[in-house]
Amino acid sequence: MSPRWVVLGPPGAGKTTVGRLLAERVGVAFRDTDDDVVAAAGKPISDIFTDDGEAAFRAMEEAAVAEALESHDGVLALGGGAVLSATTRRRLAGHTVVFLGVGMAEGVRRTGLSSARPLLAGVNPRATFKALLDARLPLYREVATVEVATDDLTPEQVVDAVLAATG
Ligand SMILES: Nc1ncnc2c1ncn2[C@@H]1O[C@H](COP(=O)(O)OP(=O)(O)O)[C@@H](O)[C@H]1O
Ligand SMILES: O=C(O)C1=C[C@@H](OP(=O)(O)O)[C@@H](O)[C@H](O)C1
Ligand SMILES: [Mg+2]
Predict the structure, then answer these.
(1) Cβ-count burial of 123 within 10 angstroms (0-12 exposed, 13-18 middle, 19+ buried)?
(2) N or C: which end of the chain has fewer CB within 10 A?
(3) ipTM for the complex shown
(4) Strand duo 97-101 + 5-8: pairing
(5) pLDDT, tens digit, for every residue of 6-16?
(6) Nearest ligand 2 atom to alpha carbon 16
(7) Which residues are annotated as a binding site for Mg(2+)?
(8) Per-position b or e across 28-49, b if 16+ CB within 10 A of its CB
(9) pTM for the full model?
(10) Which GO-annotated molecular functions does the record name (predicted)?
(11) Annotated binding site for substrate: which residue ranges?
């Protein structure tokens, strides 16, 4: 068993929103590894970061991705930092991997209203987002089989683009 689409990209790219819509559109199950980590830890991501640290979160995330890649056959959305793990990047080989891109301005706008992302909760979310994009763009592109820029698209249009490219 293997996901039909794995969706990744930076925070605010719409992995969760578009992944869920795509799954609804084609009638398959949706799964988000952030939810799996929260369920396994029994607490929200912000509490995992505060209580246990980012490294502990990354270890749980790596395990959640590995498990989902083996057991889920619908749409699988990853957390934005999942690709930081070289082991995860290796495990993504051979899968249909959709990279949803978003620029800094739109990414900050989309994530700005939520306090649920501890990495972006600092005093300068624009600088943090820029640093995050600089560090991760090569990693997203290393594993992606399809890339969709989402800045000027509605979630429905992103689903259309994903289906046109992979369907
Ligand atoms: N294409 C889009 N256009 C406008 N808003 C979007 C789009 N995709 C997602 N959003 C909004 O951005 C926020 C973050 O989306 P989310 O799916 O949680 O992103 P991710 O899982 O990639 O971090 C949500 O409020 C969502 O409604
Ligand atoms: O980019 C990141 O490092 C993170 C992104 C979040 O997921 P989303 O990308 O779905 O917001 C979540 O996994 C955690 O807050 C860390
Ligand atoms: Mg998400």
Answers:
(1) exposed
(2) N
(3) 0.98
(4) parallel
(5) 999 999 999 99
(6) 10
(7) 16
(8) bebbbbbebbbeebeeebeebb
(9) 0.97
(10) ATP binding; magnesium ion binding; shikimate kinase activity
(11) 34, 58, 80, 136
